[in-house]
Amino acid sequence: xxxxxxxxxxxxxxxxxxxxxxxxxxxxxxxxxxxxxxxxxxxxxxxxxxxxxxxxxxxxxxxxxxxxxxxxxxxxxxxxxxxxxxxxxxxxxxxxxxxxxxxxxxxxxxxxxxxxxxxxxxxxxxxxxxxxxxxxxxxxxxxxxxxxxxxxxxxxxxxxxxxxxxxxxxxxxxxxxxxxxxxxxxxxxxxxxxxxxxxxxxxxxxxxxxxxxxxxxxxxxx
Length: 222
Hints:
Layout: E1 2-11, E2 19-21, E3 23-27, E4 31-32, E5 46-50, H1 51-57, E6 68-70, E7 81-85, E8 89-96, H2 110-114, E9 120-126, E10 128-131, E11 135-141, H3 150-160, E12 167-168, H4 169-176, H5 186-193, H6 195-198, E13 201-202, H7 218-221
Parallel strand pairs: 5-6, 12-13
Antiparallel strand pairs: 1-2, 1-6, 1-11, 3-4, 3-10, 5-9, 7-8, 7-11, 8-9
Helix pairs in contact: 3-4
């Protein structure tokens, strides 16, 4: 079903400032080619935002730091939805992007006012080149949904850790799509999930002899 069009593109080179572009090359399972945040083990390969959010809130260009600007309401995209852009590229919607306090530097109380309109994070299912003006098709919910609550995402990652391995806190944050600063909350959070979970996550300094799981196959499993 036709959903809209691609109105803007931007990427973040590994070296240098964020840059807008007329077209981008996306790599399946990785993200934007050459982008700082391209990561096969991250659910945050791209950020999609709505053009209407900019108009309604009077935001300056790239205020939301999105990769793709769409003329559709991203707050209505359910996790697991697959979007096709142009003839080749397919994206998997993962979860809504949390409105953090850094937005308040753009406008007073913007984080509170923007609500669920911050944008959505996505992974690249099928790669190719996309450009401004490309059509966007909403193919429906075809993939497993992920939770907007970061705590539930942590639980999901821990559920995937093999019985013969453990995961370090920093890698747990990476796979759950949250900032590494959340690692300090992991010991209490994991302990509250129960004994079966507490044994699965360790600090980088842990003497636990079990091999460290990096997350291979996580996004194929879930």
